[in-house]
Design brief:
2 copies of one chain form a homodimer.
Chain A (H helix, E strand, L loop, with lengths): L2 H11 L3 E8 L4 E6 L7 H21 L5 E8 L2 E7 L4 E8 L4 H19 L1
Antiparallel strand pairs in A: 1-2, 1-5, 3-4, 4-5
Chain lengths: ~120, ~120
């Protein structure tokens, strides 16, 4: 299954799934799938979330809490689950606020090895 | 129930619960309960997570994703769930990596109104 197919499979399997993307820490997306029009500028979102992830990774190093695995950010509009794939890349799943967060998180974990393999 | 009692109640009700604290965005803890010795310097953790939260709040404003409600950060050692209480304060729950993340998240949501009321 291609990277894009795997991303599409993740988004389509989650109630409220809007988009999924693989991104680098420099904010450049490797691949992305958007199955429903979102209000966000995806490019801006990529850059901003990459910056946040770098900040979180730094914090985790400072407090010596081990390697970062997963981050989720919920606002009154959306729920974003992020999973680290390797030293350079992470996968992001954007869901509606009332989407199935648990399933989204589970699928990211389940598919992260497959995605990391395809990218190595 | 006092603030500390509510925090203690949250930590003790979650399998793998280690500590809970109410913190301001300037990194100063308002109150904290630690039921199990952690490897982390709690003061350092406060300051670092407050910085991260401010960064995330800024990002959410930039991408216009509405108000921040909840953030969770999982590493290979711990799982940290954070819930915004008001413009100035947030509550943090630190759990073991294999702790009951779902219940922790649920309890923070459930108790956030009570905590916010007690702090207003």
């Amino acid at each position: 299954m291609s990277l894009r197919d795997t991303l599409r499979n993740i988004v389509e399997s989650v109630d409220g799934g809007l988009a999924a993307m693989i991104m680098a820490y420099d904010g450049i997306p490797v691949d992305e799938v958007c199955i429903e029009k979102t209000e966000f500028d995806m490019q801006l979102l990529s850059v901003e979330y990459a910056t946040v992830l770098k900040e979180i990774r730094h914090t985790i190093q400072v407090i010596k809490a081990g390697d970062m695995e997963e981050v989720s950010i919920t606002t009154c509009q959306t729920c974003v689950a992020i999973r680290v794939l390797n030293e350079e890349l992470f996968v992001v799943l954007i869901m509606k606020r009332d989407g199935n967060f648990g399933k989204g998180r589970y699928l990211l974990r389940l598919k992260s090895f497959e995605l990391a393999q395809a990218l190595s």
